[in-house]
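LAB NOTEBOOK - FOLDING QUEUE
OPERATOR: T.R.
BATCH SIZE: 2
PURPOSE: Compare the predicted structure-token outputs for two unrelated chains run back to back under identical settings.
PRIORITY: normal
REVIEWER: second-year student, initials M.K.

ITEM 1
FIELD SEQUENCE / FIELD STRUCTURE:
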Amino acid sequence: MSRSPHPRARARRVAVLGTAAALLGAGTVSLSSPASATTPTAVTLAGTFDSEIGCTADWQPDCPQAHMSQQANGTWTASLNLPGGSYGYKIAINDSWTENYGASGVAGGANISMTVPAAGEVVNFVYDPNTHLATDDSHQQIVTAVGDYQSELGCSADWSATCATTQMTDPDGDGVYTYTTTAIPAGSWNTKVTIGQSWTENYGAGGTANGANIGFTVPANGSTTTFSYNSVTHLTTVVSTGGSGSSLNTLGALYTPTGTTFRLWSPDSANVSVSVGGSSHALSPTTLSGYTNVYQTVVSGDLKDQAYQFYVGGVAVPDPYAQMVTPGTAQGVVVDTAAVTPTDGGWDARPSLANREDSVVYELSVRDFTIDASSGVDPAKRGKFLGLVQTGMTDNGAKTGIDHLKELGVTTVQIMPSFDFGSTVPNWGYDPVNYNVPEEQFSQYTVPEDRIREFKDMVNAFHKNGIRVVMDVVYNHTFSKSVFGNITGKYYTSTDLSGTGNSIDDGNPMVNRMIQDSLEHWVRDYNVDGFRFDLVGVHYANNVNTWANYLNTTYAGRNLLMYGEAWNGGASDPNEVQKVRYGNVPTLAPSHFGVFNGVYRDAIRGGTDTNTMGYMGGTGNASAIAFGMRGSPTDADSTAAVSNLWTPAFAEDPEQTMNYASIHDNLNLYDKITYSGASGGATGTAGRIDRFATGMVLTSEGIPIIAEGDEFLRSKVVNGDYATALNSYNASDAVNAIHWSDKTVNANVFAYYKDAIALRKASLALRLTTWGAVHNQVNATADGSVVIGRFSSNPATPTSYDTVVVDNPTGSTYNVALPPGTWTKVLDTTGAVAASDNACGSLSVTVFKKN
């Protein structure tokens, strides 16, 4: 469900090398890579500081004073007292340059640079022989995972800040430090992190300085336990898994072959029971770290695939943590989602994503995308999860389904609600019932494990085909208050903030935790790549920050994409200042959370439901377009909140603005255009405006989103019925289904979208990744109503522009004055071109590249 936003809506001598190496460039050692890595018997810190510590020369690979010491965990460490200055070093193996490692652990790689303050200091070094990464605390902290388990790992004592065994590393320099071990025995343990091998600075639960211990459970001997510490937020997370069959230690039904633990939050009643296998079992109060008012019982035996029913005060209630349910009932089904593997036996590699700004997102509905026979999808798979990923399908020779997405060039699909919802399809499913269960109406199967595997196979197939998966999640409300209301009314706010009759109160710590646990369920067990939050404006910004920070810290290598709508359902909220609004979006930058840019959308297309167009139709605010083109940056490079809740200047990082001209709600792009009076189809004015609007989205800083079918002028208007098209969440397939014949009829529009996406993916200047880059490397101005954007992809020469984008909403050609140099026009309203003129056509985006 979407709603419109509120209308206010650090110099030292150059390195000198002996005969073992040559000097290249600015002091970089270039040495041949070893044929193969050897087991070290000696590890040396060879660098420009060697003479400072008593070596006969710098860059001495066999200097005893520069030798490191091996620790019990296999790492090598050293502490050197160095004078102030700038240095470079590498790791030399076995007292020779034959095998050496530089920056990023690269064999024969670049020097590792470091700076010591003018007063000098003791610098601590760590080398990992497995990854060949060397780190030092001149530029990185030494972070240690301390706790009551350290003696089990070979440390001299528990809670030791100086034990190198549990030192955490940050190999990619993103500020997230990790440590992984399989040597902590099964049981309950406690941890914190210390900084600089001292207790002077330490962080505990919730990232609090000198905070409480962080409890965690290792489910079995040999479990893989990973500690993660975010140096920006100071949050530490611990994830311990016993392999594919280990459940998250949360609530619900936690299955093992010998018994299932049932847990339920019941803050209002002690009369809690569960019925399973024909017997009723009373639940008793239990203590569980991170949770309150939890009742628990353990039922022995193998209960796999058995239905269960919770009762509170004698009333049957659903399990908010159920991983599977009996459709149409409040019964959960005992399963272990983590133990179900994809059909091919494991997860395929996740598509790479260097920066979130590299994303091009495509929103689709599981049903609408393939339900029509023109999709070519097998009848049994149409409108189902696996229908989305069936390959080899065509319509009139044109690729459909996932092959179409690959041809188009998108990087990510945003799948509209696909966890269990209350309505009957056709319906978009913005009425959730079970947050952790794949929707059965999108499944071909009835056996629980098959339904789980089907969703996993879908995600795996998208990944195999180079596409990442974002889930559209609806944690702001449920199908009705009856979903959770008989457990406790504390799940809901007193005022309906969603416009659906109820809204979820994540201000309650246990509701807040439920949402975080659900998110982790989908990330860990279903391998999804991010979330789009429906009406995230219902939620508290601090909680959203916690969810995103937890996931991006715990699953640091995934580059999860998370964003939502910075508004609610139109209600007055007494806690509005604390909720997600544009004004506090900068505070979410460290946790990598963004929002839909409704301001830019409205500037491009005009009001969502009106019959008049904005800038794309020839009128509107050129300054707003220029600002959106720059990625709607904050006025200052600051993560502080802005007092104006509805400021259009909200993106402290370009990844925080999700740019779009069309989404599932309201009139889709082509229908908006024709509703506003434009005509002529794909080759006429209407088609030109469609390309103009999307061209602006695809040539702006930030992350673009395209709604399914817009790339070939999808229309939901049947027999002139714009009213149904405007709000088609439950309309028939005749209205919402994608008709793939449109791709052939409107082939020129598809070609334009494809070319514009390819241009974006080839243009670093359009995918800048920091506030500073946008501030320094982009200049967007208006010449009357025409907007000219000048972009540099090189931060070293920020005003030597290499890309120029011109948005021309007028009825005539505009001749742009290009910066000095030789330029080529590479995109116009027809798509990719290669021309030497400077003409910018009417109602079009024109892009020039410097030769």
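ITEM 2
FIELD SEQUENCE / FIELD STRUCTURE:
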Amino acid sequence: MSVTRRLVVRRSGGQVSERGLFAHSRSPRSGCRHRLEDHLRGSAALARAFAERFGAGDVAEYLALVHDVGKGCCAWQNRLIFHAEPTGKPVGIPHKEAGTVLAARTVGRQLAAVVQGHHGGLPDQKKIKDVLAELRGAGVDADRVREATEAVARVVPEILREDRISPPAWLAGLGSPQRQALALDVFTRIVFSCVVDADYLDTEAHFADREPRTGARANMGMLLKRFEQRRLRLLARRTASPVDELRERVYAQALAAATGAPGMYLLHVPTGGAKTIAAGGFALRHAVEHGLGRVVFAVPYISITEQNAEVYRGLLDPAPDSGEQPVVLEHHSSVELDEEDGAGAWARMAAENWDAPVVVTTTVQLFQSLFARKPSVMRKLHRLAGSVIVLDEVQALPDRLLIPILSVLRDLVEHFGASVVLMSATQPSFWSLAQMDGLPRHSMIEDVTGLFEELRRVEYDWRLGRDVTWESIAQEIASEGGEQVLTIVNTTRDSARLHRLLSSTEGEARVTAPVWHLSTRMTAEHRREVIKRVRGELAAGRPVHVVSTSLIEAGVDVDFPRVYRAWAPAEALQQAAGRCNRDGRLERGTVVVFRPVDGGEPKDVSYRMALQASEEFFGPGRSDPDDLDALSCYYEKRWALLGADGRFMGEGIEVLRRDWDFPAVAAEFQMIDSKYAQSVVVVRPGASDAERDLIESDIALLRAPFPSGPEPLRGLQPHMATLPRHEVAEALLVGFAEVVIGDLVVWRGVYDPVRGLEAEAPEDRGVYVL
């Protein structure tokens, strides 16, 4: 990719002389300021390359070309040189308006939001109207816009165009105005992503004194060949299992389906059917067949992200001594980095942009980005165009957001060259909803019902009476003696409570076997260590007990003979059963479903409706959660209980999207309760001096006054846990935590070596999380 080089004139003695307009202060490496014309043209070249994948190269190029035109006025230039540069403080003069005027004139008012929002976030249309109306009159701001435009036009004359640039023709051909409005919402978001990513990359390159970092297009053919060779070696090393033949059949059918046309695919396979490997083979072969450039795997829980990333790294990453760049990028940290202006403005550059052939992320990260408005969160979106997007465990998508999620997925398939794989053992009946009506679906598996019958490996035992309590369940689990037992509960508070009962040195419920704990209050590295240790104990046949939140039940590869699951919606019960007799070595494993009268349940409306529908179809005298016909009826009943108007399934967000009200959409679309969404970096007790130094070094890079790129956040991911915001606020007040950047904090308080960051808040402040 060609990018215009910066112009530097050197005098004798090594002194640097620069003339003209500048976009950024001096680079600490070269000592040169960033010429404005270089920044505009460099950003434009990058944005065009990104957007050409979906036919919007002209639009994105022009928007990037004009995004910083407002920096051309004298007031901004003077503040940069005489205030910002010597003090390290922001310039403090708005610079978005000139580009907004030019964008509205050339590409239309709707897309002018891209320029107006390239720092603070996409605005609503009223904001654009108000800005344009104000700048048509007299006043300081209007004068600055005219002055800046004239000054920049002398060095970048192509910002002034007589003709208009039209969006792709498919937008106008959608027929229904409502359908067109929704598609334009997605189009605006992805063009915005192209522009802000280009802006960030070009800016970062200036301060690092090198060309912008953009990865070469992946050789998917080579990756597919490497994947298959290593898969065969992996299978040869594994202990044989009674279900191996069935798993190989699933893989073969998935690979055969990959030759089909791009579109929406279903991978409906029972738990333990090796979906992860099958999805990887499908995605790579499908990318080879159709020239797609990236594979994005999205899963609901960080624990599966960690596990799947490890699997795919083993199958795809180059040898450590090869000198090649890694293939697989693991991304699950959710840190708020955006500021309108301020001392931490450079922190935005640390945001992830998914410039890797294979990305393993969370569904929260994926969909929060698609419905956000802030640049650092959205800079990666353009990577979805022309990609294979694999959504693992789609049953975990929240009902309250299902309508907008399915609507956007459909647009990515129909207009942005993506193929989407919906993967689950408990596949929801999405095609009964209007958002999927008329969209072709391709099933990878020939006989789903027969496959489920072959893979029945458990029986269910029910404990739903009024006499069931945490103490009674703890006593029952303790009575298992030397057994290997997994217990899955609904909240972090319940998991900590049960773990204390089972591991206490007093009382009847204590077990003699090791009792492990898993929740998102533990760091990613800590959880990974526990899961590895538990797998080792299971493989050796030693007794082991695990108490976990639901993060373990969907996709985590563990195999217990006995599983306890707190009462939850039917799909969660079936997913929990997938951790029981997973390899089919027993005639039947046992899944005990219990409902403690003193247990916690979310107050969410859609969750209550899911429980109500579950009670109708599943339990003693009714169906087991493995019954596909009952599951299909369950989903339809569950959605019917939420109402035909879609009010509890996100239809209100669709109304806001049709109005292009980006701030309101971002406020309404929350995959996780915003009260429980703050990342915390932890230096665990027992960490080596080298580990501590690496963590503190990454923190220092993020706090530095120059862009760091995404590497420090990638390095900190293994050391992050998640807490409710109110707990973080309290910790900051008493000195148990310190701010790093944005809403990321580093923990300086107590970290329990077993349960991590324990909750100490009163019972009525419990938050229902993973």
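REVIEWER COMMENT (ITEM 2): DSSP finds 28 helices and 21 strands in the chain.
FOLLOW-UP: none requested
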